[in-house]
Specification:
- The protein is an all-alpha fold.
- It has one domain.
- Helices cover about 75% and strands about 0% of the residues.
- The protein contains 11 helices and no strands.
- Helix 1 crosses helix 2, helix 1 crosses helix 8 and helix 3 packs parallel to helix 11.
- The relative contact order is 0.23.
Length: about 290
């Protein structure tokens, strides 16, 4: 049991997950506000470094006592987490936050329905596919979406699917909080070279550093704590349905904090993918998802 698990929960599980979803997307909006100063890679590096410090201080994983089997679980998890964060931040630098999260959701959604032979699951695939078709920039119009941003968001979704798979193995070999803290170290090592080369960390000011601490807190430390508490009381199905709200919450966060306006068709795409994800969770056997760090 983690230290957080021994404390009396301040929130019941459903409000805790909803607050975690809002926290993650609010953190992403705050991070995007850092891009003009430190770049997407710089913001990703700062978030992971600071989140690593927070999680290591809180969970204190006994890294020196880990076995080879435990490291074999921690390292792939950290690599998947790092690449997922990097590609996601690079994508939201090019396309609206809500659309990036919608496209990213394709990864865990595909993992949820892969191998299924039930007709109902193919219906959810059609809903999700329709949403992706509505988002995809089929033309080269100046006001269209950046195709590279779309590809990067889909790449982040693929990393999310890998993250779920390797996270399941990690949870069986290392206590959850310790595993994420240790994995975050390798995520940081994966992204830091890109942050140092491609970011503009020399522009970092005390104000930007404080904002980066806020990003790490909102995007990693706070939602992780809330979701871990909720997962002890919610079924994976209920948790998955609540997480399906993320694309819509991301779109609202982009609109509220970044003035990113989606077209009616793009809002429809967000709704279709969220509906497909919730439907697949409700009617299928979904893999147990580690929280998005």
């Amino acid at each position: 049991m983690t230290p957080a698990g021994r404390r009396a929960p301040l929130l019941s599980p459903i409000p805790a997950v909803l607050l975690a979803v809002v926290s993650v997307q609010g953190g992403a909006a705050l991070a995007k506000g850092l891009f003009p100063a430190v770049g997407a890679t710089g913001a990703a590096g700062l978030r992971l470094v600071l989140a690593s410090v927070m999680l290591l201080a809180f969970f204190r994983p006994p890294l020196m006592r880990y076995t080879r089997a435990q490291w074999a679980a921690v390292i792939p998890y950290g690599l998947a987490l790092g690449v997922m964060n990097l590609t996601y931040y690079l994508s939201i630098a090019r396309i609206p936050l809500g659309l990036a999260v919608t496209l990213e959701f394709v990864g865990p959604f595909a993992l949820a329905v892969v191998g299924s032979r039930r007709a109902l699951d193919f219906l959810w695939v059609l809903f999700a596919a329709a949403g992706i078709v509505l988002i995809t920039p089929w033309t080269a119009r100046p006001d269209g979406l950046d195709p590279l941003g779309v590809v990067l968001a889909l790449a982040a979704g693929a990393c999310w699917a890998v993250y779920i798979l390797v996270g399941g193995r990690l949870s069986r070999r290392v206590p959850e909080g310790e595993g994420v803290a240790a994995g975050m170290v390798f995520a940081t090592l994966t992204v830091l070279p890109f942050a140092l080369v491609g970011g503009h960390l020399e522009r970092l000011t005390p104000g930007l550093f404080a904002a980066s601490v806020g990003v790490a807190l909102l995007s990693s430390a706070l939602p992780y704590t809330l979701e871990m508490r909720a997962l002890g009381q919610l079924s994976s199905r209920a948790f998955g349905i609540l997480m399906s709200l993320e694309p819509a919450v991301a779109a609202l966060a982009g609109w509220a904090f970044l003035r990113e306006h989606l077209t009616p068709l793009q809002w429809l795409a967000v709704a279709l993918v969220s509906f497909a994800s919730a439907g697949a969770t409700l009617t299928g056997k979904r893999p147990e998802p580690p929280v998005e760090a």
